[in-house]
Amino acid sequence: YLLIDDWKRPEPIREQLVKLHENEKTPLEGCVFIGDIPIPMIRDAHHLSSAFKRSPKANWQKSSVPSDRYYDDFGLKFDYIKQDSLIPDYHYMTLRADSKQYISPDIYSARIRPLHLEGENRYQMLRDYLKKAVAEKAKQNAFDQLTMARGHGYNSEDPLAWSGEQMALREQLPQIFKSGNTVKFYDFDMRYPMKPLYLNEIQREGLDVMLFHHHGGPTMQYINGYENGSGINLSIEN
């Protein structure tokens, strides 16, 4: 399916997705949002997030949770509140008390949304990316090399959570783990700094996917924190 419109609010999009998902002959399995698709800013739902905790009295742009679970989890119920006056793509809504209070998406979803970069045309950036993606798919390159990397602070740096993700990948991509293929796992504390190693790995010939899990800001990826060590001088520096 291809749905194209100048979407002003999120509700019509969700209605279309629900309708397509309920088609018994060819039910919708997932979707990709391309361009300036309205962003649901969820309120009263911090308990559904993994680590986001902010007073609801703070600025709504900072205390709301931007989440596409509005679009892909049809069991969640919301009431629309308002559109942001400064960022029109932000649409605030509250999770209703009679909604289910857990996450279990009915379909998968993803976004392709270009950044606002000075001197760059966002839509030309989007066109260039899509052309690049089509050209890459036309090569019919087998997915046989995967590298996964983690940054500091992710999943509270819990080794059990980290190992659980590796088990999930084995279930989701069993062919990657067969003999002759390559799977690598890097953690941020394997060496200091990790950035040069990660950059080398990204440029490695034959690598199909580099999967990063880490925190970040608008212009920065958080890979390493302070260097770990038990020496006196290093402890003083930290």
UniProtKB/TrEMBL annotation:
<protein>
    <submittedName>
        <fullName>HEAT repeat domain-containing protein</fullName>
    </submittedName>
</protein>
